[in-house]
Amino acid sequence: MSEELIDELVKLIEDNKLEDLSLLLTQESQDNAYVTLLKNSRYLVEPLKAACLIPGRAQFIDLLVTAGTDVTSCSTTGYTAAHMAACWGVVPAMRALVRLGANLKAKTVYGETAEDIAQRYGQEEVLKFFKFLAFQQKFRDEISYARSIVLTPENFTGKLSKEEKTRITKVCDEKNSWLEANYISANLLDVTEQRNDFKSKLNTVLEKVQPLEQV
């Protein structure tokens, strides 16, 4: 019976019937068999795999996760939904998975991450997405560094005025808020512009201090 229900969910995804799937998963019942299945990691793979492997099914990923599917669960060989989307080069699915909390560092039993899978199969668009995420992380690290100058001044040489500390905090808050709001929707140009603005506002201040270990 479980296999039949799962097959029914997969068929709806393959046929692009989002509304029908939504009705099944949101029907008011304390013993909704479909939702119960999705909360059992044994049955994760097939519905989420279908949503990740077929272009144009990113909305189904949101629906499945909202219904209880664990986006970080994996198959018996360690393949997560992110591995599957990376393998098939479905960038919108990758974006949805990242937004929903996918673990991109998870490895298969063969020691491969989703990025490794994309590299092996030559999925250039997915690899570009991973580079974009890495660039975003670099920007986040720069913001964290600037904020640490205000929060832990004892770890740095040099002295900043109250106004300069306030300026750092304000700019860091502004950029963090932007990143949170545009984490997935932004493109490389957007993030680059924000990072350049961050540097133009704070570089002269940040140059006044250095970490103690660099002295």
TrEMBL record:
It comes from the Eukaryota. PROSITE patterns: ANK_REPEAT. The keyword NADP does not apply. This is Ankyrin repeat domain-containing protein 45-like. Pfam families: Ank_2. The keyword Zinc-finger does not apply. Keywords: ANK repeat. It comes from Oopsacas minuta. ANK repeats lie at residues 77-109. InterPro entries: Ankyrin_rpt, Ankyrin_rpt-contain_sf, HSP70_C_sf.
